[in-house]
Amino acid sequence: MPLPASWGLEKTLAEIADAGQFRQLRLLEGGQGARVTIDGRTLLNFSSNDYLGLAAHPAVGKALKTAVDIYGVGSGASHLVCGHTSAHAALEDALARLTGRSRVLLYSTGYMANLGVASALLSRQDVLLQDKLNHASLLDAAAISGAKLVRYRHADMQHLEERLAALAPSEQRVLVSSDSVFSMDGDVPDLNALASCTAQAGAALQLDDAHGLGVLGEQGGGACEAYGLDEAAVPVLMGTFGKALGTAGAFVAGSEQLIETLIQKSRTFMYTTAMPPALAAATSQSIELLQSEGWRRPHLQQLIAGFRKKVSALGLDLMPSDTAIQPLLVGEASAAVNLSKSLLDKGFLVVAIRPPTVPAGQSRLRITLSAAHDENDVDQLVQALAELVGR
Ligand code: PMP
């Protein structure tokens, strides 16, 4: 039985299509890497968040397989019932060392981690201050927590200060949440200013380091390592495993009390199945690779610098970003989609990002670089961009 016509799904879908926002899944016929296969064609991949090229790393795969022999596949239950294994605990310890935090708690996804933080810490009388371009999961976290959501202009610390100053004294808890590296823009706000003006106002800071962990910092400890932000400056640190670490899942790091509170009160931790232990073991292996294959970070940085230089020599403006996310602003959604299609024809996977993910008129190609690429891969993309849009 289809859903009743009165639900209007046909009309909704038509409206999405009319707005040029219809999305389609693409089917990959193999694994992640600098090259992927779609419809039997090998494409150079500039769309993945696998920034360090660990998603298909043999050592990570081996750690996963070895752990399956020990732990089996499924965790069988939530962490608090009987799903928490020594593999999960070892990963939490490794993350605490990597981030320099007192304690870490695993979540099955970053989306759930962000929902879990806000819903455990905040309620209706509290305030959540957020950057306008924060990831959807942070914005959704505000809704689920019931806290009052106040947004400040993207990366605008003066506006944040004004917002903080304007809060009523009765508002009990104030949490400022921000992406460290913005997922669709690749830029990093002035994190030291963010931390200091949050602290001065007596508020607490949550950073979502999904795109910084593994990539930023000498040791790959993320944005907090890179900018010297300790647990006092960023009491709530969130990171994910599905990007630079090449696996899946997420964590929150902070004080003993924060983690205990999340264990007691965070519904997206309490009422969901623990991630498979083998995935935790694979992620621990990725963390080891951050040190043992430390060349991946400088190699990626070199590719980023070379790419920006070559693209600007074409007279094209990449958005301001020093990270692996190098968006090329196009404007209209249809133009971005057409450019993405032309690149596909030439053998490149570069996905167009449109509203509602980005504001109207700011559709873009979200080009991502990876340590899995070599200079020749990047040169091929630059050449293709020169042919399609070079001035
Ligand atoms: N935060 C940011 C900034 C992200 O980019 C993402 C993933 N796109 C998430 C959170 C969600 O993480 P996950 O994919 O693990 O749910």
TrEMBL record:
Superkingdom field: Bacteria
Record-listed E.C. numbers: 2.3.1.47
Keyword flag Zinc: no
Alphabetical list of NCBIfam families matching this protein: bioF (TIGR00858)
Task performed by this protein: Catalyzes the decarboxylative condensation of pimeloyl-[acyl-carrier protein] and L-alanine to produce 8-amino-7-oxononanoate (AON), [acyl-carrier protein], and carbon dioxide.
Oligomeric form and interacting partners: Homodimer.
Name of the protein described by the UniProt record: 8-amino-7-oxononanoate synthase
Designated gene of the protein: bioF
